[in-house]
Amino acid sequence: MAAAAPDTYQDILFEVKDNVAWITINRPRFRNAFREQSLDEMIHAVSSTREDPTICCVVITGAGDKAFSAGGDFTAMMKLNRQNAHMWNDRMLGLAMTIRGLSVPVIAMVNGYCMGGGHELALWCDLVIASDNAVFGQTGAKVGACPTVGATQYIPRIIGERLAREMIFLARTFTAQEAVQIGLINKVVPQDRLLAETLAWCEKIKGHSSQTIRATKKSLNHESDALYPSWQQGMELLANIWGTEESIEGMQAFLDKRKPDFMKFRQSNKDALDRYVADFANDRNQRSDA
């Protein structure tokens, strides 16, 4: 996995200004959905901030006003299968751990849709501030994907087990105001105040002790760091999802703007189980007749 250099970034914008690093997913045409290139560039950009101790915090956002990120780019994900799954999964895990391992706070500045893997990206960040047009959700169940790169680990801890299962199993979405009320995000502001409020947060962080923030971030992460084995298991579960007919149907249906036909897979599984039961009964009858 080759690291991208700042002068070759194609999918993101990166700027350090007034001791704040700004990383913008710059694919508004695709609602800032990310592909392998995007993930490589974000990993490189986040990691590079370690080289400048004067950087007080990192802000991650999406270009335009339609979406923070719609998650993974289906064109990229539909090429995945059991054999090459690690090429995607390792990037996702790598970005998550790079964000969590950073010694400064990482702020997700959310404008518009924050869905699927895009919402998991926000979950990896330390703080989330959103405009009043933001929408948060996990869409994996609707499109045949598996939200095991942070959603299944963190959402139950943040909003509670029952609501987390509703959010994932029913693909329930939350407006920004609802997200504040359930503790999924920190703050919601009018869209025209989003940048100003984020800058105010950054200014507050600048006035605080860097060594205290570094130490307390490590301490805050201590308990959830124990979830790392769940991430590893999640990668393996996801590897077995990619490339299956069911996952392709879900993503293709989304691209075709139609409802996916997942029932045919349930029926196929039932037919296979019925054949197994019938064969077992037949074998048992033959043994009893012998």
UniProtKB/TrEMBL annotation:
Query: What Gene Ontology biological process does one annotation of this record name?
Result: menaquinone biosynthetic process
| GO cellular component: a single term | cytosol
Q: Which GO terms describe its molecular function?
A: 1,4-dihydroxy-2-naphthoyl-CoA synthase activity
Q: Which UniProt keywords apply?
A: Lyase
Is Lyase included in the keywords of this UniProt record? yes
Q: Which domain of life is it from?
A: Bacteria
What InterPro entries does the annotation carry? ClpP/crotonase-like_dom_sf, Enoyl-CoA_hyd/isom_CS, Enoyl-CoA_hydra/iso, Enoyl-CoA_hydra_C
Which CDD domains does the protein's record reference?
Answer: crotonase-like (cd06558)
Instruction: Tell me its family.
Output: Belongs to the enoyl-CoA hydratase/isomerase family.
User: What is the protein's name according to its record?
Assistant: Enoyl-CoA hydratase/isomerase family protein
